[in-house]
Please model this.
Amino acid sequence: MTELTIAQEATADEELAWEERYAGPSRDICRRALLDLARTDPRIMCVDSDVGGLENLFADLPEQYVNVGIAEANLMGMAAGMAAAGLVPFVHTLSGFAATRACEQVKVDVAGNNLPVRIVVSHGGLSAGHYGPTHHAADDLGIMRLMPNLTVLVPADAVEAEQALLASAGHPGPVFLRLGRSRTPLVHRQPCDFRIGRALTLADGDDVTLVATGPYPVLMALRAAEALAAEGISARVLNMHTIKPLDEEAVLRAAAETRGIVTVEDHLVVGGLGGAVCEVVAARGGCPVRRIGVPDRFTDRVGGELDLLEHAGVTPERIADEARLLAGTAS
Amino acid sequence: MTGTDIGVLAERAHRVRERVLEMGAGENGAHLGGSLSAADLLTVLYGAVLRVRPDRPDWPDRDWFVLSKGHASAALYAVLAEHGFIPSEECADYAKPGSRLAGHPLRRVEGVEFPTGSLGHGLSLAAGAALAARRLGRPSRAFALLGDGELQEGSVWEAAMGAAHHGLDNLVAVVDRNGWQISGTTEECLSLEPLADRWRAFGWAVREVDGHDLSALLATFTALPDTGGRPTVVLARTVKGRGVPMLEDRKKSHYVQLTPKLHVRALAGLRNRRERDQ
Model:
């Protein structure tokens, strides 16, 4: 699949400045935002588990940086202790290691106590690419969605990632902020109205609704909507950047106002966005839901993120196919 | 506590044990062995070491205490009741439906900082609190009471390595070294010795003490923290089921539901042993 981008009206200087500002991977943008925050709030702590790069970034703020080493259980436990005693820890690890290796510490120490720990993870979904299945986290959203008190955020690009980090800083409870590994194309060409728990409507439509979470799934949903529009099918596109608490109102509105919902995620088709949307629609009434995501298997193919998603069946073409079925226009 | 009177502590430890037995006589029983081995440690910590305020459990300058071996909750509740954190009568509700006093402690009980029970969490939590105290310039120290069997959890050693590396000299781990875990002795199940050497190798200051000698415990704890920029571990040699002859140093004492008859016998044994020891 070719590089995904959004059609845009570029006004040269502004566009260039925006591109430059958000040129890096989301995790780099979040690190920069965290450093700025830490300079204004001495309670903020950057807690590292040897993820690389943070040590240099925080060289000027040694009092607000602590590396616990490659020890994720201790990372979460210590962060909970720090938060209980009045600090605001932002812990850093890979999504898979937060979700499964340190799962119990997240459950009992962080989420169970409703402590203001911010778990900032990279390598969410299949973004670890060729690193292989040990580093993939196609189950992270499902696991984190089961944690009481935990807010689960999945920004679609660097612009949202920055907003999500800033929003998490002032959030009263624990937050799981899921980022990818590498740079992904920007979804937003201007500041977005990011609010925790509120889906962003990226395109209006009344035939079908595409609900997506994660950078490539959102981009693919937009591309599918464009293809559908060319065929006269109007697709609403919701960027569900908050998996928990889910914007149930937006889902129910989609269920009432369109003929069906296609969910798109870089996550297993069980437990994550698709699961959450199905729960709401099944319980509260609505429409058919088709889920696009990673099949129920260990992804052991070697490949980059887009290659893996394509082989998992997460593609704009498939999204459009499912949407056509729901719209009743499939041949 | 000023001018700590060992006699007062001994009285209190005795009442704590009586109350632990009461909880063990409830319909759900209790982890008697590990509660009784920890009874003197908890009594000395709360009676003469920890700077805590029952009238204001969230006092920001308090010392932190984490019962990492959460299954010894009966002893903790008894001690919290002795010091007025919770009403004494509430101990009668232990493990009953709707009670706050679960088999493993809940955070909504005054004086309980963290819910514990899944082993291997407490040292990380205490280390985090200790680090926060240092960062925020507070005088707080953090104490975690660990079971010896608990030391088989890998996360304990993650925390041990981290605390030493970061020089958390306001952190104290206390190990209730009663030698037993549910299926046998620690040395049969997964050996811990040479335990003091292991902690030293992890960069900790090590103190070894008789965990039932109140004077020795007092002397040990009041000499802390270690000034060498290191966290300290107190390896307290204890006896599982201590104080109740029919439970002492026995595998079977791990979890016990005392019938009314056994409860009477246990209380009599406790009193006899106390008179003999005095």
